[in-house]
Write a structure and sequence with these properties.
Blueprint: H1 5-21, E1 31-36, H2 37-50, E2 56-60, H3 67-75, E3 79-82, H4 85-93, E4 101-103, H5 110-119, E5 122-125, H6 128-136, E6 146-152, E7 174-175, H7 179-188, E8 192-196, H8 206-227, E9 234-236, H9 254-264, H10 267-270, E10 274-277, H11 281-284, E11 288-300, E12 303-308, H12 316-320, E13 329-332, E14 343-349, E15 358-366, E16 373-376, E17 397-402, E18 405-410, H13 415-421
Parallel strand pairs: 1-17, 2-3, 2-10, 3-4, 4-5, 5-6, 6-7, 6-8, 8-9, 9-10, 12-14
Antiparallel strand pairs: 1-11, 11-12, 11-16, 13-16, 14-15, 17-18
Helix pairs in contact: 7-8, 8-9
Length: 423
């Protein structure tokens, strides 16, 4: 169930105040990312309610690769989608059974392919050359492995080119216009049993997702006819449903998406094919916020600037592409309670040594003072996972909040951790 606007507005302050009161944040914790664990549970429950029974919901590891979060989803029956060799290992370390792991890296090495086949994960080949590598590895002799091919359905791009991967050209998969070669690839390989797609993420509409799924279902029927048997047994529709980062970026609901998908692709519910999903942003973004301590407040050239402890190190896209990526900001007092009062334009500067490190410019915010907290809403996906090593700053602590309890999901990096990283 989608939380009410009132809960959504109040929860970060309640969670931050709880963490502070429990002593989970000390003077060294200049920044933190906090997750709503019950909200994460609700997201998975919503997917199970809306999609066909038996669907494997494989959360995208890249969106929030905190092992504690991944393990919690796995304990509740979810799968995990790995886009690299280390993400594959992280999935297994989080307790995900191999039969619930989807391995989608577009640049798999021979050792990675060999290991994935031995483990028996769901492996989606990115291209015909990868299928030839799998031929050489005798992929058909791995009875536990579930093997498919990624296809670009070529249904068009969304409003953000960098997150759209289903145009006429894409770096991912084989294009649908090569359907003859795709069909022949399946005829040649009886062990090839699945189709995979990903249309894109933020900026893509429901129509693109449903059109992509429809195109691959039709391709699957063509493959079945050519092979003389039911060959395509699973359809991986990827993830990508956009999320709202505030009033300026409304987004469709998962219920809207599932309803449209059922209307356009009813055989996912009525037929023998098993559906897979790979939601990341939708799963994690609204379940986490970040908070950074205000270190200094400066007034110069008629502008007020708050210097905080998060910037382009964790919010690469908002800092580099502020017109495309925007987070709602709020301000809390040193005890975590929301600051009230009049609002005025503020610049929010991050801690990195380059001129573009700003979370916001001219944003209407309450007055800030050193010791306050700058709260960044909807930061649960693609933030900590994109942490930058520029200036060698320490990655912040990650906390999970459930009812009235607070747990450390990941400790703040120590100076020694950073030095060890650099060798």
């Amino acid at each position: 169930m989608t939380p009410s606007p009132e809960h959504r507005a109040a929860w970060p302050f309640r969670a931050l105040a709880l963490a502070l009161s429990r002593g989970q944040l000390d003077e060294d914790d200049t920044a933190v990312i906090v997750y709503d664990l019950e909200g994460l549970d609700a997201r998975l429950a919503e997917l199970n309610r809306l999609f066909p029974a038996g669907t494997l919901h494989a959360a995208a590891v890249k969106a929030a690769p905190l092992r504690a979060l991944l393990a919690r989803l796995c304990r509740a029956g979810a799968g995990l989608e790995a886009a690299s060799g280390p993400e594959l290992h992280l999935s297994l370390r989080a307790g995900c059974p191999p039969e619930r792991v989807v391995f989608d890296s577009p640049a798999k090495t021979l050792p990675e392919l060999r290991q994935a086949l031995a483990l028996g994960v769901h492996l989606n080949a990115d291209n015909f050359q990868e299928l030839e590598r799998m031929d050489a590895l005798d992929a058909g002799s791995s009875p536990a492995a579930s093997l498919g091919l990624r296809v670009n359905p070529q249904v068009g791009e969304g409003s953000i080119a960098a997150t759209s991967v289903a145009g006429q050209y894409s770096k991912f998969g084989e294009p649908l216009e090569k359907r003859g070669e795709i069909v022949r690839a399946f005829q040649k390989r009886p062990w090839l049993r699945g189709l995979h797609m990903h249309v894109g993420s933020q900026g893509c509409g429901i129509g693109l997702f449903t059109a992509g799924a429809r195109a691959l279902l039709d391709l699957g029927r063509e493959i079945d006819r050519a092979c003389g048997e039911r060959r395509v047994l699973r359809l991986d529709i990827g993830g990508g449903l956009p999320v709202s980062y505030g009033p300026s970026s409304p987004a469709p609901s998962m219920e809207d998406y599932a309803t449209a998908l059922r209307r356009e692709c009813p055989e996912l519910w009525d037929g023998p094919m098993r559906a897979f999903t790979e939601f990341g942003r939708w799963m994690f973004a609204g379940q986490g916020f970040a908070a950074a301590r205000v270190e200094y407040v400066k007034e110069q050239a008629g502008q007020r600037t708050a210097v905080v402890h998060l910037g382009a190190d964790m919010f690469l896209r908002p800092c580099y592409l502020p017109d495309t990526w925007r987070h709602e900001l709020a301000v809390a007092a040193p005890d975590g309670t929301p600051k009230q009062g009049s609002r005025s334009p503020w610049n929010v500067a991050g801690p990195l040594c380059f001129a573009g490190d700003f979370l916001a410019r001219g944003r209407e915010l309450p007055d800030m003072a050193p010791g306050d907290w700058l709260v960044v809403r909807d930061a649960g996906a693609y933030t900590l996972s994109m942490w930058s090593r520029y200036n060698s700053r320490q990655a912040p602590k990650a906390l999970g909040v459930e009812a009235d309890g607070v747990e450390v999901l990941k400790a703040r990096e120590s100076v020694e951790d950073v030095l060890r990283f650099w060798g």
